């Protein structure tokens, strides 16, 4: 009895926003504006922290990295969702879905790790302020 399932899933149909056309246009404009604001805001934070010599402390370095990770995390899924709002056939391939899931977990995990490092940085700054420079050296910061 070697009966195998002969079906093969190659794409998924997305029907989350398949309502009225006017509502889809409203969502397209709203999500596009929010996405552009997110990307521009995060780029401004990264550029400001990188170019300003007075912001080259460990905490400001740690503030630039979450901006990068946040921008990457929002770029993983939002453009596909925005383009699907205006598309006739709202589908995503199996590989595209798996890639999105992997990247969301990867960037989400990296952001959680970075938040843990930031919490450790603040702990050292508050509980051991006189030893902060020796504990949070550039060597440790680069390793973290």
From TrEMBL:
Query: How does the protein associate with the membrane?
Result: Multi-pass membrane protein
Ranges for the G-protein coupled receptors family 1 profile domain? 41-144
Entry GO terms, CC: membrane
Membrane-spanning residues = 25-51, 102-120
Location(s), subcellular: Membrane
Where is the major localization of this protein?
A: membrane
Keywords, A to Z? Answer: G-protein coupled receptor, Membrane, Receptor, Transducer, Transmembrane, Transmembrane helix
One example of the protein's molecular function in GO is: G protein-coupled receptor activity
The Swiss-Prot or TrEMBL record describes its family as follows: Belongs to the G-protein coupled receptor 1 family.
Q: What is this protein called?
A: Olfactory receptor 4L1
The species this protein was found in: Sciurus carolinensis (Eastern gray squirrel)
């Amino acid at each position: 009895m070697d009966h195998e399932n002969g079906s093969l899933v190659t794409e998924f149909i997305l029907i989350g926003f398949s309502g009225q056309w006017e509502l889809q246009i409203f969502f397209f404009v709203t999500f596009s504006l929010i996405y552009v604001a997110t990307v521009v805001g995060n780029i401004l934070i990264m550029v400001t922290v990188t170019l300003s010599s007075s912001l080259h402390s460990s905490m400001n370095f740690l503030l630039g990295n979450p901006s990068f990770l946040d921008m990457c995390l929002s770029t993983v899924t939002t453009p596909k969702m925005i383009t699907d709002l205006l598309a006739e056939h709202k589908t995503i391939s199996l590989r595209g879905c798996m890639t999105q899931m992997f990247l969301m977990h990867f960037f989400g995990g990296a952001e959680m790790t970075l938040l843990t490092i930031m919490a450790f940085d603040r702990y050292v700054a508050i509980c051991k302020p006189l030893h902060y420079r020796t504990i949070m050296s550039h060597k440790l910061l680069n390793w973290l």
